[in-house]
Design a protein that fits this description.
By secondary structure, the protein is α/β, with parallel strands linked by helices. The chain has a single domain, classed as 3-Layer(aba) Sandwich (Rossmann fold). The chain is 48% helix and 16% strand. The chain has twelve helices and eight strands. It has an eight-stranded mixed beta sheet, sandwiched between helices. Strand 6, helix 8 and strand 7 form a beta-alpha-beta unit. It is globular, with a radius of gyration of 18 Å. The two termini are 21 Å apart. Bound molecules: adenosine-5'-triphosphate (ATP) and magnesium ion.
Length: 275
């Protein structure tokens, strides 16, 4: 498996980025792959709460501290794999949820943002070169906040998550044209919360919907995930990949993970051809 960073982004809020990012990370870690999951949603941090069961004691260093140059990469990461019984490491980089920290992040200067993106690249190198991490997943804020753009820029694959809501799709089209084409190395669309579940029940129906969406968006669609009532109602501290490993939502995400892994082969082929 080639090392890669995957950003999970969307134009509008609530499309399922965090649920997808956390479970994708857990799917890799369950298989024994070492993974890092970074909360780059500094406006509305959530991973500290999602993983509260696995975080013992108080968090000493946040990703905010690392980006501010107040701590080293290793200090800003917490391994929760033991707490969840995962085979691979699951290293969390957490955003500070205090009001002061959120306001502080919103007032950062352009110069700080430039330094922050360099630090993000250095964190990525550290994870891949020194910490044996194979996959780094970045959960982001919706829209075009600097840190979300930084996440897209510093990832190998940007996954744009959207629902079939017309405003979501409009926002997605704008982002594909103005953000991904300019900044992302590779970008793919993931349609989530498709209602009703039965609409994408069979693989033929999924293929039909993917084909239709690809034609409309003129972009690769990597999967369609139904809206599952129990996922919508589940406690946010419940990690499906651990608590309900046979849930169909995970089968959908595993297929997405396989396709994301497949992208590397295309890259490698292109590299070989270029050589
Ligand atoms: N496929 C799905 N089926 C049902 N519910 C889902 C699905 N995906 C996500 N959800 C639910 O949608 C809600 C929003 O999900 P989530 O917080 O992951 O979105 P988000 O894009 O990270 O939001 P934000 O932009 O606010 O960070 C949650 O209640 C989550 O459980
Ligand atoms: Mg989120």
């Amino acid at each position: 498996m080639r090392k890669k960073a995957i950003s999970i982004h969307s134009s509008r809020g609530g499309t399922g980025k965090t649920v997808i990012a956390t479970n994708l990370a857990a799917i890799y870690a369950v298989k024994g792959v070492n993974v890092a999951l970074l909360d780059l949603d500094f406006c509305a941090p959530s991973l500290v709460d999602v993983f509260s069961k696995g975080i013992s004691g108080s968090v000493k260093h946040w990703l905010n501290d690392f980006l501010d140059g107040r701590c080293r990469a290793e200090q800003a990461l917490i391994d929760v794999s033991k707490a969840y019984g995962l085979k691979g490491k699951l290293l969390l980089g957490l955003a500070n949820p205090s009001i002061e920290a959120i306001r502080n992040m919103m007032e950062k200067s352009r110069a700080w943002e430039v330094t922050a993106v360099k630090r993000l690249f250095s964190l990525r190198s550290r994870l891949f070169d020194a910490m044996d991490v194979y996959c780094c997943i970045l959960d982001t804020s919706p829209g075009v906040q600097y840190m979300s753009v930084n996440a897209v820029v510093s990832s190998d694959i940007a996954v744009a998550v959207a629902t079939l809501d017309s405003l979501d799709l409009k926002g997605l089209e704008n982002m594909l044209a103005e953000l991904y084409d300019a900044f992302a190395k590779r970008s793919v669309v993931l349609i989530n919360k498709v209602f009703p579940e039965t609409r994408v029940w069979s693989s033929d129906e999924q293929t039909d919907l993917i084909g239709k969406m690809e034609k409309t968006l003129k972009h690769r669609v990597i999967g369609v995930i139904p809206c599952y009532c129990d996922v919508l109602q589940a406690k946010r501290t419940s990690l499906l990949a651990v608590d309900k490993p046979y849930h169909p939502f995970l089968r959908n995400l595993e297929e997405v993970a396989e396709k994301l892994d497949g992208i590397k082969e295309v890259d490698m082929e292109e590299q070989v051809l270029a050589e």
